[in-house]
Amino acid sequence: MGLPTHTAQNGNGSLDTGNARLKELGYKQELKRDLSVFSNFAFSFSIISVLTGITTLYNTGLNFGGPVSLQYGWFIAGGFTMIVGLSMAEICSSYPTSGGLYYWSAKLAGPNWAPFASWITGWFNIVGQWAVTTSVDFSLAQLIQVIILLSTGGKNGGGYEASKYVVIAIHGGILLLHAALNSLPISVLSFFGQLAAVWNLVGVLVLTILIPLVATERASAKFVFTHFNTDNGDGINSKAYIFVLGLLMSQYTLTGYDASAHMTEETKNADKNGPKGIISAIGISVIFGWFYIIGITFAVTNISSLLNEDNDAGGYAIAEIFYQAFKGRYGNGVGGIICLGVVAVAIFFCGMSSVTSNSRMVYAFSRDGAMPLSSLWHEVNNQEVPINAVWLSAVISFCMALTYLGSEVAFQAMVSIATIGLYIAYALPIFFRVTLARKSFIPGPFNLGRYGVLVGWIAVLWVATISILFSLPVAYPITNETLNYTPVAVGGLLILTISSWISWARHWFKGPITNVES
User: Which residue ranges traverse the bilayer (predicted)?
Assistant: First the structure.
């Protein structure tokens, strides 16, 4: 069953169903509704950014299973991610608000559970998003450091190796640029978002063709599609265990598509176009991500050499692949460095869009009074931009990265919230939709019909599965340095969220607050 047809006049005099639905849900139109369906897609697609996730974690895939984990793990993670995305898209169609996940939980959990469901979903979502921004911009800082290293001669040629303090300073500069860009009107951000999507699409195609074409030595098709690497040096011999750990690259990459939901209050006909943004971003990312993996893996001939920290790129596998491909063909690696620049621009756009999504979540969450100093964070300027939320997100992401100065282990634990914490936030409203709201849920224009509950349960079970798998040890024997702190980080967030609810928030937080008269 679909919602009644909603109509409302926008600034151009045309009818907009998303605007009308937002008013029905109890909210004023405060942000400028100017995004097309392609712009909405572009924000999610540029946050997923296969060039970002695959490049950053290609080492993990090579180390744990190699080509088999990279190829087939990608499709397994991609298939289940699409199932999660379909469930989210169905809910987004019914509730197209910037609050996204936490608002959905409140509506689907029912009046008795709404405040608590909204509270826990919102904090997992917002902290997960901050962790995504932290990790994306930090990965860009690390790539810039590798580009500088290779440009100055490489590790074996006396190249400059930046200290961790320099990397943090670069990270801070990147966040500053992202906050400045996100202070511009949404029409400008829409242009950058569309440019980011095109850059990712073209970049994947160019690198997929160029790198194996330039490389003087190429892997065989048998190696690319059937080789399973068990030589991980981490004391893990079980092929099933190794394959599971290799999935991390794929699942980390395929996150952030909730951005389409957070941008719905700025998207035309959002009850239709928001869901389209989610589904298309996942689907196109899975296809283009596979092309990228295939192309790069055809240039892999020696896994141990690529992962060796004493190679020219300092153990950064894809950087070493690019550099050596051009060096082997032309006698120098300049072309490889330029290719790394293409990836760096894609990561920059990814971080920019991530801050955009963060700020809209902060804006919506504070609009409902869930954050300290809420009245400050949900203010919009005369260009209809939640300017304070933008800068808050940048500052918090920088503070989260500072843990790297104290302990790389602590930093990795914190960043793990970017995958597991965010997926828990994805799963909670879906869980409420297939349990408490199974019979009461009223779908919007996009819906899964009679398959909605089945798809929802598969999505919830997949998130539960990866939450367990990614909490497993990644090296043996287990020491302070090899312990997987993911369950500690995610468990700590859960404890903080629940304890703050019991001791404080339950006395005043009532869930989403309408700001228009019914």
Answer: 37-58, 70-89, 101-124, 130-150, 162-181, 193-215, 278-300, 330-351, 385-405, 411-432, 453-476, 482-504
Q: How many residues does the chain have?
A: 518
**pLDDT tens-place string over residues 397-438:** 999 999 888 877 777 777 778 888 899 999 999 999 999 999
437 alpha-carbon distance from chain centroid: 27
Q: Within 13 Å, how many C-alpha atoms sit on residue 452's CB side?
A: 25
Q: Which of 421, 423, 442 is nearest to 431 (CA)?
A: 423
Cα Rg of the chain, angstroms? 22
Instruction: Give DSSP secondary structure letters for 59-99.
Output: HHHHHTBTHHHHHHHHHHHHHHHHHHHHHHHHHHHH---TT
Q: How many CA atoms lie within 13 A of 90 on its CB side?
A: 26
Q: How far apart are CA 194 and CA 207, in angstroms?
A: 20
42 half-sphere exposure, CB direction, 13 A CA radius: 21
- Which amino acid is located at 438 in the chain? R
* pTM assigned to the model: 0.89
Q: What is the rounded CA–CA span in Å between residue 509 and residue 255?
A: 29
Q: Is 270 exposed, middle or buried (0-12, 13-18, 19+ CB in 10 A)?
A: buried
Two structure tokens written together for 197 = 């999507």
pLDDT tens-place string over residues 8-34: 444 444 557 878 888 888 777 777 788
3 state DSSP class of 15: strand
Residue pair 303/222 in contact (Cβ under 8 Å)? The answer is no
